[in-house]
Amino acid sequence: MKALSTPSTQVADPPFAKFLFSDTRMSVVWLIIRIYVGFSWLDAGLHKVLDTGAKTNYIYDGSGILAFWQKIAAIPAAPAKPTITYDWYRGFIQLLIDSHLEGVFGKLVAFGETSVGIGLILGAFVGIAAVSGAFMNLNFMLAGSASTNPVLLLLGFLLVLAWKTAGYIGLDRYLLPFLGTPWKAPPVTATGKAPAHTPQLA
Known about the structure:
By secondary structure, the chain is mainly alpha-helical. The protein has helices spanning 15-22, 27-50, 63-73, 87-98, 102-122, 126-142, 149-161, 172-179. Helices cover 56% and strands 0% of the residues. The two termini are 39 Å apart.
């Protein structure tokens, strides 16, 4: 029986998207966004790392994050609405409380926020740092905390889309080529076409 095969089709990005997310000329814009988002995460993380309060610390016994969990998991009397909208997420938070995981998650959140901030500021593995930050933003929003999270989430998504050039003014300019992501366009042959085996940036 003849095997069925589906032809592969590549849909090219529109020029504007290529310029926005794959052109190194946009790296200055992404640098500004990176610095803003990075310092936001670094400030939030360092506060948690350096907090030594008996009831507010995150890295010693996790009392700070435990107090936060208990506050958002509480169900107020009607007609007041609970902080967390989705029951499944409230159940997840309650599971963390019952499992006494505040010590682990306190450190994870404190050092995670700090690491995301440092990575974005230095331009090191921007895509990974932005994804990690966006994931934390999403969890904070599910927990009922708006604050700056919607804006940081949107900017994080944009940095993920621009992962190839967002760290060009930064360590990614050297880290990504070392890992196999080229920064330069391939050489053009006499026929006017790039060699088929040579990877391109976009």
